[in-house]
Write a structure and sequence with these properties.
By secondary structure, the chain is α+β, with helices and mostly antiparallel strands. Helix content is 32%, strand content 23%. The protein is built from three helices and five strands, in the order E-E-E-E-E-H-H-H. The strands form two sheets. Strands 1-4-5 form a three-stranded antiparallel beta sheet. It has a two-stranded antiparallel sheet with strand order 2-3. The longest helix is centred in the last third of the chain and has 18 residues. The N and C termini lie far apart (37 Å). 25% of the residues are buried. It binds zinc ion (2 copies). One zinc ion binds next to strand 5 and helix 1.
C-alpha cells in the first residue's frame, strides 16, 4: 500500500449526501448525476485552498474502497483518479484492483461522452 500525501489535516472537510434537484457532473468520473439521484457534495479547505466537488454514488463507493485500503484517508473528489494513478504507479500488490477501478471510473465518463451536456447552461460549480 502506498502512503497518501497527508501530513496536514484539512481545516474544513464537509461532505453532505444530497438528492440532485437537477443534473450534476461527477468531479471524478464526469458522468451525469440525474435529477433525483443521490450524490455527495464536497467542500473542504486544505492548506488555505478550497476544494469543491461532487461525487456520484458509484465514485463514492469506489473512493470508500480505496480509502479502506489506505488508512481510511479520503481524497478530494477531483483527485480520485490521480491518487489511483499514483497508487498503480507504486505497483503494490493491490495495484491490479486499482487499475480496474480506474478503468471503471473512466468507462463511466465515456458512457456519457457524446450525450448532449448543454455546456452553455451555467452550472453551480460553487467557485465564485
Ligand atoms: Zn496504494
Ligand atoms: Zn463518478
Amino acid at each position: 500500500m502506498c502512503v497518501l500525501d497527508c501530513d496536514e489535516s484539512p481545516e474544513v472537510w464537509l461532505e453532505t449526501e444530497r438528492k440532485a434537484r437537477k443534473e450534476h457532473i461527477c468531479s471524478s468520473c464526469c458522468r451525469v448525476v440525474d435529477a433525483g439521484e443521490k450524490y455527495l457534495a464536497h467542500f473542504s479547505v486544505y492548506d488555505g485552498r478550497s476544494w469543491i466537488g461532487k461525487l456520484c454514488c458509484d465514485c463514492v463507493s469506489d473512493r470508500a474502497k480505496f480509502a479502506e485500503a489506505h488508512g481510511g484517508i479520503l481524497c478530494f473528489p477531483s483527485e480520485l483518479r490521480n491518487v489511483l494513478v499514483d497508487c498503480i504507479a507504486e505497483g503494490d500488490d493491490e495495484s491490479e484492483m486499482w487499475r480496474s477501478m480506474l478503468d471503471r471510473i473512466k468507462a463511466r465518463g465515456l458512457a456519457v461522452a457524446g450525450v448532449s451536456h448543454a455546456p452553455s447552461r451555467p452550472r453551480d460549480s460553487g467557485t465564485n
